[in-house]
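Example record

The entry below shows one chain as it appears in the dataset: sequence first, then structure tokens.
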Amino acid sequence: QVRLVESGGGLVQAGGSLRLSCEASGRTFSTYAMGWFRQAPGKEREFVAAISWVDGSTIYTDSLKGRFTISRDNAKHTVYLQMNSLKLEDTAVYYCVGSEGAYGPAARYDYWGQGTQVTVSA
């Protein structure tokens, strides 16, 4: 099993930045990629970004490219999501995910964190 623990969420003003972290523990060698989803109140869960542990290849949802950046630290088994120029509509619970195989918007993720709240205020 792989355990994912997110941190870094909180309250930020519009235009500000936050960096989310997700540390993986347990059978981390079984994960090929990790990523982030988010779910805003009353909305469906949305893919944000994913990154391969192997070569650092990344995938983003188009609407967030340029503002959000995913990165990894293999030695720390940690994935980061740098979020800049935050907007009110970025308010959501952000979930860290891990995949043992394919990754991307349509992939099936094997592991999920508990989520961290990001609230953007006017």
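Notes for this example: The chain is about 0% helix and 50% strand. The chain has a mean pLDDT of 95.
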